[in-house]
Amino acid sequence: MAVDTERIPARPRRLGDRLAVLGEREFTRFFIGYTTSLLGSSMAPVAVAFSVLDSGGTGTDLGWVMAARILPVVLVLLAGGVIADRFGSRRLMLGSDVLRGLVQALFAGLLAAGHAPVRAMVALVAVWGIGEGLFMPAFGAILPDLVRRKELLADGNTLLGLSRSVSTVAGPALAGLVTAARGPAAVLLVDAVTYGVGALALAGLRLPDRPGTDDGTSMLRELRAGWSEFAARPWLWITTAQMGLFNLLVWAPFLVLGPLTAQRELGGARAWGLVMGVYGAGAVLGGLWMLGRRPGRPLAVATVAGLAWALPSAALAAGASLVWVVAGALVAGVGSAVCGTLFSTTTQRWVPVELLGRLTSFGSLGAFVLGPLGLAAAGPLAARLGTGEVLLLGVVWQVAAGVVVLGVPAVRNRRWEEGPDN
Is the sign of the CA dihedral 145, 146, 152, 156 positive or negative? Predict the structure, then answer.
């Protein structure tokens, strides 16, 4: 394993040092475009939901529409990783933004004209999902090309994570206001415009001339090669497996059973909105705290931070008051930002850039593929075993999995100073 000879600086304390990554021109251009696009994307689900309901659709119709967005993401992730490595992340992301912008503009036009049956919505959000599935692995692979000083990769990931955290709080609130004032078509039109801003930012990037891997090799063979590289890195596949089972056993039950518990015991929708809003605020705080920090063993720190996700589920399982559930959500939000930033940075720092697209796609697929199963199974399991019992199972799993993963030398002993894997 090669050792990176660059000297890792001591932890910066000044705000200017912590925001030094904004001095990287290409990163800043991308950050502005991505943040703008992300805000529009976080507004869109509210508009889509009300589009279905306002047109007379049922809860089942809404379920079909939401599933039509998620399924294509899972199906095209691996293809997106191969394409990103073959032709470059910027091209794929640019095409994805254009595609999604056109879909949202068409969706808005159909709504404004009063010609948007549920089947048309299903088709449109399915294409939208294809664009998202192609975008995700390319997004995971582009940051090393945007940041010349590799010691600033963590700060770049932190700022991008902050954008996501802020958008999850601000986007739905803005969407609610615009939907109430102008209708869902206006929100989708805004989303289409923000995709255009993101595409313009990508089009203007000046990135290193990095040769692709389009040498005539079949996509299937490239996928196999990518899988071999993924499986050869224990720190990567172990943490991916942990995240996939977390989404199945912890996060999915929390998202389903949390609102049910809030409705029965904590005061209803307002209480649940407070829990999730504080979770988002915690993620913002965690992102701000991470700026400029370089833990010596990032994967170990990320694993410990991930234990915080057990806290809100534990509070719900114990029948605690709303104050304790909110406090758990705040700490979990902080932990999510720390964990997400460090895992993203380790992947970008230690995986050769020509493999990043494929290995990111395998990681994303492994992390999220079991989530829909958890969402579907949480309700029936709670009816059979009890809500508290299902949530407690997730708590026990999260703690036990964290201890086991910390016991793996490839995770526990990986140090920041180590360079890319051979």
Answer: negative
CATH 1.20.1250.20 domain locations along the chain = 1-207, 224-422
Residue with tokens 């509210």: 46
Round to whole Å and give the CA distance between 226 and 3: 23
Contact 147, 153 (CB under 8 A): yes
Please return the burial class of 89, using the count of CB atoms within 10 Å of its CB with bins 0-12, 13-18 and 19+: buried
Q: Is residue 314 within 8 Å of residue 395, measured between CB atoms?
A: yes
Q: How many CB atoms lie within 10 A of CB 236?
A: 25
CA–CA gap between residue 188 and residue 124 (Å, rounded): 12
pLDDT at site 8: 42
- Class of the 224-422 domain? mainly alpha
Q: How many whole angstroms separate alpha carbon 260 and alpha carbon 133?
A: 30
DSSP state, residue 12: P
Give 10-residue mean pLDDT values along the chain (422 residues).
41 59 86 91 79 70 70 82 82 92 94 85 90 86 80 78 81 78 89 94 79 60 80 85 89 80 75 78 85 80 91 91 91 90 81 76 80 76 86 93 90 71 52
How far CA 23 is from CA of 33, 43, 102, in Å, comes to 16, 29, 32
Q: Give the count of beta carbons closer than 10 Å to the beta carbon of residue 414.
A: 18
Q: For the full predicted model, state whether its pTM sits above 0.85.
A: no
Tokens 């199972």 sit on residue: 393
Model pLDDT, residue 362: 81
Whole-angstrom CA distances from 257 to 20, 246, 372 are: 42, 15, 14
Alpha helices in 307-353 (DSSP H): 310-317, 322-350
Cα gap 419→5, rounded to integer Å: 8
CA atoms within 13 A on the CB side of 106: 13
Dihedral angle, C-alpha 371, 375, 377, 381, nearest 10 °: 120
CATH number of 1-207: 1.20.1250.20
For 62, residues 6+ apart whose C-beta sits below 8 A from its C-beta are 49, 52, 53
Distance between CA atoms of residues 313 and 254, nearest Å: 6
Angstrom distance (rounded) from CA 223 to CA 81 = 8
